[in-house]
Write a structure and sequence with these properties.
about 575 residues, mainly beta, Immunoglobulin-like, 5 helices, 44 strands, about 45% strand, binds 2-acetamido-2-deoxy-beta-D-glucopyranose
Length: about 575
């Protein structure tokens, strides 16, 4: 957890990647911006053109965009101005809870060449929550023997704001018997503690009703109140005692609602009502009250809602055992949540090129990011594609990968590839997510027409009728479309005496050869010429072939006597 390691295994295209990263590999410093929570949508956050020292034209030509680490669209980049604007109203309490500072990391991604900038948006707190007591009325039972100076902690108060907007001050009225001391819980929270100032007397006054007011440190401050009912009890001389002061239990995050995770037990030496123990949570936060419940009589602690390791990894629960006379003891229950591999890896495609020309080498096909919300091995992922494809995966920045063609491709041997990106985590059972990208290879005119024979020999009987079909010549082209569209033509003969154009013609489309007039064997017994086949690519490619034409004799001359 928390390391920025990227391992590369022997298998070239398989990469191991740890998702919960702390360090980044970018050399540049992060850009830091700050905005108050609840700021209007559309408000200006930053000007990237200025902060990155790039022109607005360059931002838009390089398809600049902002990508948050969790892929939420909280920010919007206007590429015409370079301004980054708020795309949604941010609620600091919802985003970060009690974590401070509240930082939302994001990346600025530029293409051609691919470039990343890290950036952070700090969300500032505003005083938008009042202190709240989780109970409208709190009953405290105090034996009349309680000595002056005894303290009673009131813990069920919260303010969702942080820092100076969180709980600050308390007051109580009327204040004849108690004053309020502020107790620092050590985790930054200030709780009120009632301190007994004047001894109680059950016989004189068996109940007191007080109003406790909590104020926060905001400007202006907000406040909340609760009613405190003090019951003054007759005395009881033995307090309950827990078997252990600290209980520890490990619970897998998939444990069912309603199951008992542990049983807590305390004893009290008194008899009757003074020895009867009742269990309850003490100092319990909202999270604890939502997640657990304790059976007041048995001390069994049960699950009220599902645990989620990805949200909370451990709970420290204070438990109080109170006897019927109001005496109490405390213990602590430590609940450790165990991670289960319950999140599959996620793949987010940022950009994709579906068609690449066959002669281009190392072309960017896709840019994508992977993540897995589990931790440890459950969150460590392997990213791979099929072994037998001329494509490779490269880690680029943090959890981003690029898919590249490895070399120039040949459309004539394969015109389409389906590339499946598989991302598996290393948990047990292993969870895998796949994403398939179809890539088409577009044609380049890289093949010349090829004749079906290395030369052609055709014959025609003399005295033929004009426009006779003598034969045909054929060539093929393995490119596609106009790159494979062939036209045939006659080339000028080497023999200057031969008037080829008056003897032969060729059909440019199908290569058929015709004689143009009757031939005479006694005048011309054979002749040769070249035919060209040319495709329509740009630039066009062509080939030539030799055609030999034989004129066959006919018995068209009567014999005559020389002597
Ligand atoms: C690919 O072919 C086209 C068209 O023939 C050419 O313009 C381009 O320079 C070639 N590219 C590479 C990388 O060879
Ligand atoms: C790629 O996938 C599509 C859709 O499943 C399929 O029609 C096509 O034949 C596949 N192509 C290859 C080369 O496997």
């Amino acid at each position: 957890m928390g390391t920025g390691r990227v391992l590369i295994l022997q298998k070239r295209q398989v990469l191991v990647f740890s998702i919960l990263l702390g360090l980044s590999r970018a050399s540049t410093e992060s850009l830091r911006y700050s905005v108050a929570e609840e700021t209007e949508i559309g408000s200006f956050v930053a000007n990237l053109a200025r902060d990155l020292g790039l022109g607005v034209a360059e931002l838009s030509s390089r398809e600049a965009r902002v990508v948050s680490d969790d892929n939420k669209k909280r920010l919007l980049l206007n590429v015409l101005t370079g301004d980054v604007l708020l795309h949604e109203r941010l609620d600091r309490e919802e985003l970060c809870g009690s974590t401070q500072p509240c930082v939302l990391p994001f990346q600025v991604v530029l293409e051609n060449p691919l470039q990343f900038y890290r950036a952070e948006l700090h969300v500032r707190d505003i005083n938008d929550h009042s202190p709240t007591f989780l109970d409208k009325e709190i009953t405290i039972k105090i034996p009349e023997s309680a000595t002056v100076g005894a303290t009673f902690l009131i813990d069920n108060v919260q303010d969702l704001d942080i820092g100076s907007n969180s709980l600050r001050d308390y007051s109580i009225s009327p204040s004849h018997h108690f004053y309020v001391k502020i107790h620092d819980s050590g985790d930054g929270k200030l709780y009120p503690e009632l301190v007994l100032d004047r001894a109680l007397d059950h016989e004189e006054e068996s109940e007191l009703r007080l109003t406790l007011t909590a104020s926060d440190g905001g400007s202006p401050p907000r406040s909340g109140t609760t009613l405190i009912l003090i019951k003054v009890l007759d005395i009881n001389d033995n307090a309950p005692e827990f078997d252990q002061s600290l209980y520890e239990v490990q619970v897998p995050e998939d444990r069912l609602i309603g199951s008992t995770i542990i049983a807590i037990s305390a004893k009290d030496l008194d008899t009757g009502n003074y020895g009867k123990i009742s269990y309850s949570f003490l100092h319990a936060s909202e999270d604890i009250r939502k997640t657990f419940e304790i059976n007041p009589t048995s001390g069994n602690v049960n699950l009220r809602s599902l645990l989620d390791f990805e949200v909370i990894q451990s709970y420290s629960v204070n438990i109080q055992a109170t006897d019927g006379g109001g005496l109490s003891a405390k213990c602590t229950l430590l609940v450790k949540v165990l991670d289960i591999n319950d999140n599959a890896p996620e793949v987010t495609i940022s950009s994709i090129t579906k068609t690449i020309p066959e002669n281009a080498s190392e072309t960017l096909v896709a840019l994508f990011s992977v993540r897995d919300q589990d931790s440890g091995d459950n969150g460590r992922v392997l990213c791979s594609i099929q072994d037998d494809l001329p494509f490779l995966l490269k880690p680029t920045f943090k959890n981003f990968f690029t898919l590249l063609s490895e070399k120039a491709l040949d459309r004539e041997s394969r015109a389409e590839y389906n590339i499946t990106i598989s991302v598996s985590d290393m948990g047990s059972p292993r969870l895998t997510t796949q994403h398939t990208i179809a890539v088409q290879v577009s044609d380049i005119n890289d093949n010349a027409p090829a004749f079906t024979q290395s030369s052609y020999t055709l014959s025609v009987r003399e005295n033929n009728s004009p426009a006779l079909l003598i034969g045909s010549i054929r060539a093929t082209d393995s490119d596609s479309g106009s790159n494979a569209h062939i036209t045939y033509s006659l080339l000028p003969p080497h023999d200057q005496q031969l008037d080829l154009a008056s003897l032969i013609s060729i059909n440019a489309e199908n290569g058929q050869l015709f004689s143009l007039r009757a031939l005479d064997y006694e005048a011309l017994q054979s002749f040769e010429f070249l035919v060209a086949a040319t495709d329509q690519g740009s630039p066009a490619l062509s080939s030539q072939v030799l055609v030999r034409m034989l004129v066959l004799d006919d018995n068209d001359n009567a014999p005559f006597v020389l002597y």
